[in-house]
């Protein structure tokens, strides 16, 4: 079975063309590396750009969407498989269970919440699946500043932060994820 990559990203497009442009290029990297895309199931914003690009290039896409968003006609019904779940919590759990790797592209608080929860689970030794931020045009710079401050102030261990892949170049994300070995993480 193909490996799966979960991508968290915005339901909006953002205010810069580079967000959509790099999302399309990253989608092509997913195809090139024969990965199955797992994502939030949406048909709008960067989620729509990502899923449509993978679908149009012949890739496999699994969308996971809560019922209330599905009922608002926000699902991409062209995906290979659409899982309609009860709520946002089950959405994240399902995406986690289906995925081998996790990446966040630009998005809002939902995107941030999703990648940080998965990263927190890694920190708590609940899994050793690699997590990454694709830092398009410096989008996550302030988040990285906060994470470094958290480490400097002993609220987070450096070994945990070191396990988060930070990549500015979409060409390098997948190779870093697939070659990554999450370091032995001590319990808190």
**CATH domain topology:** Rossmann fold
Average per-residue pLDDT, rounded, comes to: 95
Beginning-to-end CA distance, first to last residue: 34 Å
Bin the helical content.
40-55%
Any idea what the radius of gyration is?
16 Å
Structure explained in plain terms:
This protein has one domain: Rossmann fold (3-Layer(aba) Sandwich), CATH 3.40.50.450. It has 188 residues and is an alpha/beta fold. The chain starts with a strand and ends in a 9-residue tail after the last helix. It is globular. Helix 1 (17-32) runs parallel beside helix 2. It has helices spanning 17-32, 45-56, 67-70, 88-98, 109-123, 141-152, 158-162, 170-179; strands at residues 4-8, 36-39, 61-66, 81-85, 101-104, 131-134, 164-167.
Give a short synopsis of this structure:
The protein is α/β, with parallel strands linked by helices. 45% of the residues lie in helices and 17% in strands. Strands 4-3-2-1-5-6-7 form a seven-stranded parallel β-sheet, sandwiched between helices.
